[in-house]
Amino acid sequence: LVKNSGWVELPQISDERDGVLNIMEVGKNIPFDIKRVYYINHLENCVSERGKHAHKALEQVIFCINGSFVLTLDDGEKQQDILMNRSNQGVILGVNLWHTMHDFSSGCVLLVVASDVYRESDYIRDYDEFKQYVENS
Ligand code: T46
C-alpha cells in the first residue's frame, strides 16, 4: 500500500447460527481511540465519486461492509486502486493521503471509524494544495 496506509483485518466469528460477527476493537485492530463513526449508504445507481480530499491530522479506517467499491489512494508520489469487497478488511487512511471512493456497487455500504470529531479545517480539498502540503511536510 501507499504511504500512511495499511490493512486492518477484523476477526470474524461464525457458529451454527446464521450471521457472521465482525469485531473492531481499539488497540487490537483499530490503531487509535475512536471518537467518531459514520457510514455512507444509499449508493444505488451511483455514478459519482466521493472523497477527493486528504486529512492533516485525522486518522481513519474505512470498511466496505456490504457490496463493493474502489478506493483510490494517492500519497503524493504513488497512486493505488484497491477493490474493497471484503467486509472484514479495512484500509487505514492516515494523514496526507488523498483518497477517492468510486464505482460503488448497488447496496454498497461504507463504514468509517475516525480518531477525532468532524473539523472542516482538517480537510485539504484542493489537489494542488495537497501536493504542496505533502512536499512541505
Ligand atoms: C472521508 C471519507 C472517507 C459532517 O458535518 N460531519 C461528518 O462527520 C462528516 C464525515 C461530514 N460532514 C459534512 C461535511 C460536508 O459538508 O458532510 C458533508 C459531506 O462530507 P464529505 O463531502 O467530506 O463526504 P465524503 O463522503 O466525500 O467524505 C467522507 C468524510 O467526510 C471524509 O473525512 O475521509 O468520507
TrEMBL record:
Listed CDD domains:
cupin_QdtA-like (cd20292)
Domain spans labelled Sugar 3,4-ketoisomerase QdtA cupin: 4-134
**Pfam families to which the protein is assigned, alphabetical:** FdtA
The domain of life for this entry's organism is Bacteria
- Coiled coil located at which positions? none
What's this protein's name?
FdtA/QdtA family cupin domain-containing protein
Q: Lineage in the entry?
A: Bacteria, Pseudomonadati, Lentisphaerota, Lentisphaeria, Lentisphaerales
